[in-house]
Amino acid sequence: MRILEPSCHPERSEGSPADDARCALRRGSLAALGTTGLFFAAALPAQAADIQGHAISYQITVEKPPAETKAEGQMSASLSKTCESWDYSSALLYSLGRTGARMESWQEGTKFSEKPDGRILQYEARYRVGARGEEARGTVVLGADGAGTLDVKSDKLPRKVDLPAGTLLPVALRAKLIDALSSSDPDTAGGPFALRTIELGRFYAAADVTVARAAALPALKPPAPRISSPLLRGRAWTLKQTSRALSDWMESTFELHESGVIARFTFRREGIVWRADVKELNAFATPKCGG
What is the pLDDT of residue 7? Predict the structure, then answer.
């Protein structure tokens, strides 16, 4: 008997969350066979990036929505530091519908605590389309070489995912990227950068990403609100992220500041390119921790 596997289209959401996860795992194993490039994370020195805790909300727009289609969205995120962990949370809500018809809504939410040494992460996440979806929680544990396990506790498809050497947790990845971009060595700072990380928004899987320098995002029309914040006064880079394993789902062009703030970015959902621009930004105090 032939067992049929689900069709795998990460940019779509017609499959069940369990099928989506199986697709992600299958894609990841195939993509790993063809991955090339140097994963620079292990070769970089200890983190020097001075990431600042902050709360941020975004204005969500679609520059060119499909004809007779209404698109709406909102997003907020926070990243705070304690002496024990980096704590992150985000919520993205967006809706699509034909003009005059009922709109369908999506919700993506992620919360995690990442240890300062980048070895352990505990998370909760949800992905919903209308009334259906998946909620998951679990732990990521990495060894000294970055290899480890992603534990996914879910009522849809509980599983353990092996993570290859060189895997970076989210805050550690952001810090390593800022370190590389800030390097006085033009060969290091110029990129592109090949990275291994994890995806916790929908697929709960290992993910390879390539980050390269890109042209600045064009100004919005009408312009986005002008934000005056010390967190946006340092150096900034516009970058494009792509992934072989998760294709459109992880494709993004984003503006990263040396404070760790991502001030604007694009993301692709349901075949549409959405854009998020900062509309409010507040800094958190940095804790003073004993040595």
Answer: 37
Residue 74 lies in a domain: yes
Q: Is the pLDDT of residue 19 over 50?
A: no
Asked whether residue 172 is assigned to any structural domain, the reply reads: yes
What pTM was estimated for this model as a whole? 0.83
Report yes or no on 10 lying in a domain: no
Please choose, from the candidates 179, 180, 170, 181, the residue with its C-alpha nearest in 3D space to the C-alpha of residue 209: 170
State how far the Cα of 141 lies from the Cα of 147, in Å rounded to an integer: 8
**Nearby residues of 194 by Cβ (< 8 Å), 6 or more positions away:** 35, 37, 38, 39, 40, 208, 209, 210
Q: What is the domain range of residue 196?
A: 17-283
Stretch (H or E) spanning 177: helix 170-181
Looking at the 3D structure of the chain, how many domains does it have? 1
CA-to-CA dists, residue 43 to 39, 49, 144, 218, angstroms: 8, 16, 13, 34
Strands 272-283 and 54-61: antiparallel
